[in-house]
Amino acid sequence: MCLGVPGKILEISGDMATVELGKATVQVSMQLLDGGTVGEYVIVHAGFAIERLDIDAARKTLEAMDAFGELS
Amino acid sequence: MKYIDEFKDLVRGSGILKEIVRLATFKVSFMEICGSHTHVICKSGLRALLPDNINLISGPGCPVCVTSQPEIDAIIDFADSNKDVIITTFGDMLRVPGSSSTLEQVRARATDVRVIYSPLGALSIARQSPQKEVVLLSVGFETTAPLIASVLQTAQAEGITNLTVYPLHKLTPPAMAVLLDSKDMRIDGFICPGHVTAIIGADAYGFIAKDYKRPCVVTGFEPLDALFAIYMLLLQIKEGRADIENEYKRVVSGTGNARARAIMDHVFEPSDALWRGLGSIPMSGLSLRDDYMGFSAAKRFGIDITKYTDSSKGTLDCRCADVLRGVINPAQCPLFATACTPTAPQGPCMVSDEGACAAWYTYERTAVAL
Ligand code: SF4
After folding, report:
1. Taking CB atoms and an 8 Å limit, are B150 and A61 in contact across chains?
2. DSSP secondary structure of B318-362
3. Does A39 touch chain B (CB under 8 A)?
4. Which residues of chain A make contact with B36, given a CB cutoff of 8 A?
5. Does B206 touch chain A (CB under 8 A)?
6. How far apart, in Å, are the Cα atoms of A3 and each of B39, B146, B193, B331, B346?
């Protein structure tokens, strides 16, 4: 139910955005976000963008995970 | 898929796993609140990789599962006796056993029950069939409630009058407090639900660290996220800390999505709610505010929940209530994988993908047999 999938905004028109989710393209309501930009990643839950995905933060988390590999 | 696949690769986590093994010199129990976390933990086989000292308990994080039996019975009866309305709901609701029927069986008896993937679906059906009453049976936590609120705001603005909602929403932090107060078991730390927290913000768990001195880690939904969260919780305990930490910074902030919360607060107000397994919890549900009472299905159709009692249990021996509190794991239910399977579910925990029993049935049965 709380499933949320990251997707890339391809186009915005009014309150709706076209979002690339894997191989699919879906229409998503942007009403729960303060604006949005084409190219940005958002988390899609049941037809709505519920939050942005911060690419720098994703990279930092992966780096933190990879740092363990180097320890061992 | 981008920003998913990178977090799936457990080989990448072998260093983290080694650290976990090194740190796990004492017995701990961590609870994952969210049903999606239960699903990913089972599916990835993480439990088998972890040292025996680490016990992962599933919590009350499957919205369909925590819906109380009286409410399930009330909506099934309503659907059965109103053949002229269109009922819309999320797929998991259809097969949840009521005391004498399911929504799926009611649909076979000619009530128009439709599965929607988004609450926007209910709105478009209402627009397309203005002569029909459309009822949205909505379940879900803080992740989903703002979506329903947004749909009702739109319906209000468009003057749509044939859409009503039966809200069964639940709020997460009050349930966590009840679990912490319970004497049934000890929870040493929480794996906090990533998408609920995207809305409410990580700061919402402050009381757990401060008043209960238990660590919390908000995490994402891929195997590496879950693994990293377990490491972070262990490290906190080892260092004698109880902090709110955030592994899912790519999506979650300390304060959450203020806009989504404002929309939710505009339409709903907190109210007491009845949870399967946890009983009535003050201010743990959502009711429509006066301005939105026109959208209340209970009011329009006179659905009276007080007619249904909790003694009208679906199946007598279903232990969902104990599974949801983390008191037993699914395999400890006598009906698990015998009388109760995903094709013949005896309780909601076996119906939903996010239900602990369904996840254990699909992914952990071999482990159980061993
Ligand atoms: S295995 Fe089936 S009967 Fe047992 S608790 Fe789970 S859903 Fe209920």
Report:
1. no
2. --HHHHHTTSS-GGGSTTBTTTBBTTB-SSGGGTSTTSHHHHHHH
3. no
4. 1-3
5. no
6. 11, 15, 10, 25, 24
Q: For residue B175, report the phi and psi dihedrals to the nearest 5 degrees.
A: -70, -35
**Residue B71 at interface with chain A, using a CB cutoff of 8 Å:** no
The secondary element (H helix, E strand) that includes residue B286 is strand B279-288
Q: Do B12 and A65 make contact, defined as CB atoms within 8 angstroms?
A: yes
Question: How far away, in angstroms, is B222 Cα from ligand 1 center?
Answer: 26
One domain, residues B152 and B270: yes
* B208-241 pLDDT tens trace: 999 999 999 999 999 999 999 999 999 999 999 9
Name which of B368, B184, B173 is nearest B277 in CA terms.
B184
| B140 Cβ neighbours under 8 A, 6+ residues apart | A1, A2, B63, B90, B147, B148, B169, B170
pLDDT in tens, B74-83: 999 999 999 9
- Do B109 and B87 form a contact (C-beta atoms < 8 A)? no
- Domain of B216, in residue numbers: 4-37+47-63+184-246
Q: For residue B12, how many other CB atoms are within 10 A of its CB? A: 18
Which residue of B13, B257, B263 is in closest CB contact with A51?
B257
Picking from B266, B288, B307, the residue at the C-terminal end of a domain is B307
Which DSSP letter does residue A9 get?
E
Q: What is the CATH number of domain A5-67?
A: 2.30.30.140
Burial B64-96 (b: 16+ CB within 10 A, else e): bbbbbbbbbbbbbbbbbebeebbbbbbebbbbb
- Any domain includes B329: yes
A60 lies within 8 A of chain B by CB: yes
ipTM: 0.94
Provide, as residue numbers in chain B, all residues whose Cβ is less than 8 Å from the Cβ of A19.
none
Residues of A within 8 A of B358 (CB-CB) are none
pLDDT in tens, A4-14: 999 999 999 99
Q: How far is CA B62 from CA B34, B88, B119, B141, B224, in A?
A: 7, 19, 18, 9, 21
